[in-house]
Amino acid sequence: MLEAFGPSLYLAEGPTVSFYGFPYPTRMAVVRLSDRSTWVWSPVALTDELFNSVQAVGPVRHIVSPNRIHHLFLAEWAERWPEARVYAPPGLAKRRPDLRFDAELGDEPDPAWVADMDQVIFRGSLAMEEVAFFHRASRTAIICDLIQRHPETTMTGWKGGLMRLDSLVGEHGSTPREWRASFLRRGKARAAREKVLNWKAERLLIAHGDCAETGATQIIDRALDWI
């Protein structure tokens, strides 16, 4: 169920979910930290096969949601690994008071993964802020909804046409236009973009659409040039 994406970095494909009537494939990331524990990003639906695959990486100690709409499967992961800490992005704890969160993500990595990861929050949106991550060992930027690159072949019919108009399809995919418009104060978002570009990432792992194993910095630069 887990596929290696780089040194100590794995991904898993989840089911397609409906987002305002549009089909969205899901994808998660798993990192083996230097202390041999496991860090889980944007978990997808949990199956027995996926459970066993993740267990083989190492004990799950950290479960992370990168923005406030990636929360559908947090509860089942937290229940399966009750000893893990669950981390909320800005706004999610208030939106989901029924979920147990142990900490809120900030602009600096948690001490538990500071040796392995970097992170920054894209702030300034009235709608939603997102935390981007960088895995040093694999030189991978991990970005959730800010960059979407849905495959051309799957974008058919009127829904596919709308996704294309929203600049979410193909190798030049970017950020949903309505989300872009919500960044009324872009100074902090520009600073976040600059930090991400300074990571000099080689790989790009995203939740929706095609990842990239080369040229990540150039892809990010182009996809987020609207900021």
Q: Explain this structure to me?
A:
This protein is α/β, with parallel strands linked by helices and 227 residues long. It has one domain: Metallo-beta-lactamase, Chain A (4-Layer Sandwich), CATH 3.60.15. It is built from seven helices and 13 strands. The strands form three sheets. The chain has a seven-stranded mixed β-sheet. Strands 10-11-12-13 form a four-stranded mixed β-sheet, covered by helices on one side. A two-stranded antiparallel sheet has the order 3-4. A hairpin with a 5-residue loop joins strand 5 and strand 6. The radius of gyration is 16 Å and the shape is globular. The model has no long low-confidence stretch (mean pLDDT 91).
Write the layout of secondary structure elements.
Elements (H helix, E strand, L loop, with lengths): L2 E4 L2 E5 L3 E3 L2 E3 L2 E6 L5 E4 L6 H10 L2 E5 L9 H7 L4 E4 L3 H4 L7 E2 L12 E6 L7 E6 L4 E4 L13 H9 L11 H5 L5 H12 L4 E4 L9 H8 L4
Parallel strand pairs: 6-7, 7-8, 8-9, 12-13
Antiparallel strand pairs: 1-2, 2-5, 3-4, 5-6, 10-11, 11-12
